[in-house]
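Please, structure for the following, as tokens.
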Amino acid sequence: MPNMPQTPQQMMDTARREAGVDIDDSAILPAVSRLVDSINIDGQPREEGAVMLQSRITRVLKNRLRMARDFAAYPEIHEQKIDRPIFICGMARTGSTKTQKLLAASGDFNFLTFWKAFNPSLISGDRSESPQGRIDDADEYLQWYDERSPETRAGHIFETHGTEEESGILELSMISPVWFGWSRMDSYLAWLPTVGMKDQFDVLVRTLKYLQWQGLAETGKRWLLKSPLYSGLEPLLLDAFPDACLLMTHRTPMDTIPSGLRLLECFYKPFTDRQANPEAYVEGVKMATDAHMEWRATQPNDRFLDVPFSQLVGPPEHTLRSIYAYADEPLSDASLKRMNDWASGDMGNPQKKYGKHQYSLDQFGLTQERIATDFSNYIAFIDELEKTRANLQVR
């Protein structure tokens, strides 16, 4: 199988030349080398996929350089405040995306669109520059991606101006499991725990401040953020954002495991024929779930708000009022109407126009018995959560 055309050092040299920024970012080279080697060896990309993954890494390196340039030129960026951000922290396929898009429809929060996470850095360093070049770059990438994996849209829709999670920003750290979304990379994932994943949260803090400074977020509005990779990493998240509000979406792993594996099939399709290892995927989800359950047992009940999946498939008003009350955010009639309109219209389930995201445990060689054993404590927790919700509805 073909490797990426350039070595990690050549990618960094290309990024410096194309960004026009002569800043030494060599401290990140070991992480880039780990990432590139793992993609080449474990991911075995096709020729076009290798070129596009190299392009993605180079774009991230350029964004890093441009951001470093602007922080050096405008140190006041550091003084930007990220006030009480709201993080949706459920595991993949638990309804976290729907929760984010539903809340974003309110108009009450700052949130990332795909292009802002894809290209957060100014090209020229001039705040007055038009963002159109960065937008066009995102458009071009998504057109390429959609042509090669149209079935992705049944499970997750990427849109240039659509609400999106911060995975693209976490990639800037070069030390994040989000890279697993595009290629199998066994050795890289095995390496991550040896170095820790604090850097991705530090990068997120800096990037949100940077976007605010650019005028790409509204003053006085809180950030609404989301990633399916925060479960088990809550202590690191709260170190970076001590006043964060955490929404925990939950759904049985009987559904989330095969749904996640099917989505990875779609995500990998433009780049490689090699698929994720179901056994390793289950083990990774189990480790994250166990870490989350251990952490939450040490926390007061009001440190987070649980949102079971069943609350997201019906009329959302009760759930929305609970979320706003937990976040200590005023809920206006106008905001509630916008969210109810989104939920009741096509936007509430936009994937349905692109077909059904179909999956089963069987197609990945997994059994219900296996999942029930591996996730027994978490499944019992979800069952209790649903019972509590049912009792509250009866009252």
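The chain has a mean pLDDT of 95. The domain at 83-394 is CATH 3.40.50.300 (Rossmann fold).
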